[in-house]
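To whoever is on call:

I kicked off a structure prediction for a single chain this morning and the downstream step that reads the tokens threw a length-mismatch warning. I double-checked the sequence; it's 92 residues and nothing unusual in it as far as I can see. Pasting both halves so you can look.
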Amino acid sequence: MNVLHVIPTLARSYGGPSHAVAGFARSLRQQRVRVTIATTASDEPEIAGDFVGVTIERLPRATGRWWPTAFAYSPALAAWLDRSVAGFDLVH
């Protein structure tokens, strides 16, 4: 099975979801599931977690006054998803 997790950021300051995806990925890897995380690039350190064997696609965010950091809009992530999502069995 090939699973994709999509999350705005892996930065520590975003709390719960960033921590949860590390646990999801670790548990799935233990079951021999291929795991990819699609996220935006961040200047903040990613959360502590076991990402061994996990592919992380980091795509740039839109910047400027119209796209505040918290919104994390990423045209590059949207384009990557359009091209790639069909290759996954499950998208979360």
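Update from on-call: the warning came from a stale cache, not from the record. Cleared it. Sanity check on the structure: DSSP finds two helices and four strands in the chain.
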